[in-house]
Specification:
The complex is a heterodimer of chains A (411) and B (226). Chain A is of the alpha+beta class and 411 residues long. Chain A has 2 domains: 2-51 and 262-410, no CATH class; 63-247, no CATH class. Helix content of chain A is 51%, strand content 18%. The two termini of chain A are 30 Å apart. Chain B contains 7 helices and 10 strands. In chain B, the strands form 2 sheets. A 6-stranded mixed beta sheet of chain B has the order 6-7-8-3-9-10, with helices on both faces. Chain B starts with a strand and ends with a strand. Chain A binds chain B through residues 3, 6-7, 10-11, 13-14, 298-299, 302-310, 402-404, 407, 410-411, and chain B through 50, 53, 55-56, 75-76, 79-80, 82-84, 88, 90-92, 94, 96-99, 103, 106-108, 110-112, 154, 166.
C-alpha cells in the first residue's frame, strides 16, 4: 500500500496541467455544491424555523378542529385555555405557551364600503407577537398596539384598503356560531414581513379576538415554543401523555400539513442538486482519468506482469483520484464558503413567486444562504465522491489490462 | 525440466482472419539454461516466451512450469506465479518513470511479497549490475544502458527461477548490448538462473548455449552450443 501511495502521489506530478485541470474540476464542483447546499440550508434554517415558530413548535387544538382545519371552524375551539397553557408551561423544554385565534376577515377604511379585501386575523398575547413573531422588528411604520382597540396591519393589506398609521378601519369577522362580528380599530402600525402573502395578515389583542369570535377565555389553538425546534416531535410526544392534554390533539409543527412533507421534499431537493453536481463533475474527472489510464497502459501492463493484482490496480487509481479530489475539494470548499458567505450577506432575491406561497409557509422574497460546518463537510466528502465516481470506470478499465496486451501496446 | 510447452497452439483473431502464432510446438527448458528463441519477425518467438512467462494463455496445449499446468490458473494466481517465479527484461526497459532505480527494483520484491531484508537485497542487486551510485535516480536521469541494468536488477532481485528477456539488446548500442549480455551470462553462471531470450540479434545468439529456431509458428531447429 505504501508503494501504491508513493506512486499515486508522484503520478500526480507527471502531467501537472492535467492534474491541475482535474483538481479545478473538482474544486468548481465542490464550490458549486457548497453554495447550493448553503442555499437549500438557507431555506431550511430560515424559512422553516420561521414557519415553525409561527405555527407553534407544539400546538394543541380540539380534535375536531384538527380534522376540519382548512375551514378554520371557530366553533371547534378550546373553551378554556388556562389549564392547557399551564400544562404546557410546566414542561421543562417549553419556553412559553400562547393561546391563539386565527380567523378570516374582510376589512376597509371606516369611510369606505365593506368590500372583498380579505385578510387573516390573529389574536394572541402581545408577548407572542414580540417574542415569537418579532413583529416589533418588522414594523415599517408606527408602533406596536398598546390598547385593545388598536390593530397592526400587514403592508399589503394596508395598501389594498388604503390604510395608514392612525387610520380607522372596520373589520368584519364571525363569531363561533356564525354571527357577524364587526370591529372598529385604529391602525397602530404597519408590518413588512418580506412577502405579499405574509403582509396580508393583521394582528389584534387576544381580548379583541376573543370578543370578535365570542370565545371568552378560550382560543382556537394554544401554541407552545420549545427550546430547540428540531426537538418538537419528542416534546409533543411527551405532552400527549399529559393528563390535562389527553383529550386534545397535540402535535409538533412538522406533523401537520404542509410542514409534514417539507423535510422529505427538502432532503430530496438536496439529494437531486448534489447528485447532478456530483455526476457532472464526475464526468470531468472520468475524462482526465481515462486519458491517464490510456497513457499508462504499458506501464500498468508491466506492473501486472510483475504480479500487481487487479484490485491493487484499482486502488492505485482511486488513491490518485482521491488525492486530486482532496486538493480540489479543499480549494472548492474554501471557494464555496467564500461565495456562500458573500451571498449570505447580500442575499438572493427569489422574485415575486415567493409571495405566492401560502401564509402557513412563509418564504421571504430574499433568501440568505446559510453556511454550516455540516455543509462544508458534506461538500468536501461529496468532492471525494465525485472523484470516486469519475475514477471508477478508468480504474476498472486499468485493472482489466492484460500484461501481454500492454506489452504489445508498448511497442 | 523447469518449464515445458506441450503441443501448444496460439491463434489470434484479426478481423475476420485467424492468425496462427504458434502451431502446436513442443519444447522443454532445463534449469540453468541460457537459451535463445530466434527467428524472424512473426515467427512466434515472443509468443512462446509470453506463454512460458505466464503473460498469455495458449489456445490449446499445456504450459508446464515446475511440472504444473499454469494455463488453468486464474488471473491473480497467474500474477502470483509471475511475481515469485519469473523475472522479465523488456526491449524498452519498461521501468516505472515515477520511481527511482532502487524503487523500481524494490517494486518487484513488494509485488512478490518478499519483504524480508528488502533494502539490502535491492542495494545488492544494483551493486551487482554496477549501479551503486545511481540508486536514487529516476529512469529519465539514466542512459539506455543504465536503464536496462536497472531492469536486470529488477528481474534478478527476487531470485526467480526463470528470466524472460524479450530482445533485451534491441534498443542498446553494441557496446552496451555486449555488456548487458555479459552481465546476464555472469548471473546465469553464478546463480543458476534460467535465461530465455527472444532475439534475431547474432550477437545474442553467439553468446547463447542453446538456440531454438522458429519459423511461421513452428520449431525448425534446436541446437545446443558449446
Amino acid at each position: 500500500m505504501e508503494l501504491l501511495v508513493t506512486m499515486a502521489v508522484r503520478n500526480l506530478g507527471r502531467n501537472r496541467r492535467r492534474t491541475a485541470l482535474t483538481a479545478l474540476t473538482v474544486a468548481l464542483g465542490t464550490a458549486l455544491l457548497t453554495v447550493a447546499l448553503s442555499m437549500v440550508n438557507g431555506i431550511v434554517l430560515t424559512t422553516l424555523e420561521k414557519a415553525a415558530g409561527q405555527a407553534g413548535h407544539v400546538r394543541v387544538v380540539d380534535v375536531e378542529y384538527a380534522r376540519r382545519e382548512q375551514l378554520m371552524p371557530l366553533s371547534e375551539n378550546l373553551p378554556d385555555t388556562a389549564p392547557i397553557v399551564a400544562a404546557l408551561s410546566a414542561d421543562p423544554d417549553v419556553l412559553a405557551a400562547f393561546p391563539h385565534i386565527a380567523m378570516g376577515v374582510t376589512g376597509c377604511l371606516e369611510s369606505a364600503e365593506i368590500g372583498e379585501k380579505f385578510a387573516l386575523l390573529h389574536g394572541a398575547p402581545t408577548a407572542y407577537y414580540t417574542d415569537v413573531l418579532h413583529l416589533d422588528a418588522s414594523l415599517s411604520a408606527g408602533a406596536m398596539p398598546t390598547a385593545e382597540d388598536e390593530v397592526l396591519l400587514g403592508r399589503a393589506f394596508a395598501e389594498d384598503i388604503g390604510a395608514g398609521v392612525g387610520s380607522t378601519v372596520i373589520l368584519l369577522g364571525q363569531t363561533q356560531d356564525g354571527s357577524p362580528a364587526p370591529a372598529r380599530l385604529r391602525v397602530a402600525g404597519l408590518v413588512d414581513l418580506g412577502s405579499r402573502t405574509q403582509n396580508r395578515q393583521l394582528w389584534v389583542s387576544m381580548e379583541k379576538a376573543r370578543w370578535m369570535a365570542d370565545i371568552e377565555g378560550g382560543a382556537t389553538e394554544v401554541l407552545a415554543q420549545v427550546r430547540d425546534y428540531r426537538a418538537s416531535g419528542a416534546v409533543a410526544a411527551r405532552l400527549r401523555s399529559h393528563r390535562a392534554l389527553s383529550t386534545y390533539d397535540v402535535h409538533a409543527w412538522d406533523e401537520r400539513s404542509p410542514f409534514d412533507e417539507i423535510g422529505g421534499v427538502l432532503g430530496t431537493i438536496k439529494s437531486v442538486v448534489a447528485g447532478i453536481i456530483v455526476f457532472i463533475t464526475g464526468l470531468g474527472v472520468l475524462n482526465t482519468m481515462l486519458m491517464s489510464v490510456l497513457e499508462r497502459t504499458g506501464e500498468i501492463g508491466v506492473m501486472r506482469a510483475f504480479g500487481l493484482r487487479r484490485r491493487d490496480t484499482i486502488v492505485l487509481f482511486f488513491i490518485e483520484a482521491i488525492a486530486i479530489a482532496g486538493l480540489g475539494g479543499l480549494g472548492g470548499v474554501a471557494l464555496g464558503a467564500a461565495g456562500a458567505t458573500i451571498l449570505g450577506r447580500v442575499g438572493i432575491h427569489l422574485g415575486e413567486g415567493a409571495s405566492k406561497m401560502p401564509a402557513t409557509l412563509p418564504i421571504n422574497e430574499t433568501m440568505y444562504p446559510q453556511l454550516t460546518a455540516e455543509v462544508l463537510v458534506t461538500g468536501f466528502l461529496l468532492g471525494l465522491l465525485m472523484a470516486v465516481v469519475g475514477a471508477l470506470l478508468p480504474a476498472i478499465r486499468a485493472s482489466r489490462i492484460q500484461p501481454v496486451d500492454a506489452m504489445r501496446h508498448r511497442r | 525440466m523447469i518449464c515445458q510447452l506441450v503441443g501448444v497452439k496460439k491463434t489470434y483473431p484479426m478481423g475476420e482472419l485467424t492468425v496462427v502464432a504458434l502451431n502446436g510446438i513442443d519444447v522443454g527448458v532445463d534449469e540453468g539454461e541460457f537459451t535463445v528463441f530466434a527467428g524472424p519477425s512473426g515467427s512466434g518467438k515472443t509468443t512462446a516466451l509470453n506463454l512460458i512467462g505466464c503473460l498469455d494463455r495458449p489456445t490449446s496445449g499445456q504450459v508446464l512450469l515446475d511440472g504444473r499446468d499454469v494455463a488453468t490458473l486464474g488471473d491473480d494466481a497467474l500474477g502470483q506465479v509471475r511475481a515469485r517465479r519469473i523475472g522479465f527484461i523488456f526491449q524498452s526497459f519498461n521501468l516505472i518513470p515515477v520511481l527511482t532505480a532502487a524503487e523500481n527494483v524494490e517494486l518487484a520484491l513488494r509485488l512478490a511479497g518478499l519483504d524480508k531484508g528488502r533494502k539490502e537485497k535491492v542495494e545488492q542487486a544494483l551493486v551487482d549490475v554496477g549501479l551503486k551510485d545511481f540508486m536514487g535516480r529516476r529512469p529519465n536521469q539514466l542512459s539506455g544502458g543504465q536503464q536496462q541494468r536497472v531492469a536486470i536488477a529488477r528481474a534478478l532481485v527476487k531470485k526467480p527461477a526463470i528470466i524472460i528477456a524479450d530482445e533485451p539488446t534491441a534498443n542498446l548500442d553494441s557496446q552496451n548490448g555486449e555488456a548487458i549480455l555479459d552481465l546476464m551470462r555472469q548471473m546465469n553462471e553464478r546463480d543458476r538462473i534460467t535465461f530465455l531470450f527472444s532475439t534475431h540479434d547474432p550477437m545474442v545468439m553467439a553468446r547463447a548455449r542453446r538456440v531454438v529456431r522458429l519459423k511461421d509458428g513452428a520449431i525448425v531447429g534446436d541446437e545446443r552450443l558449446a
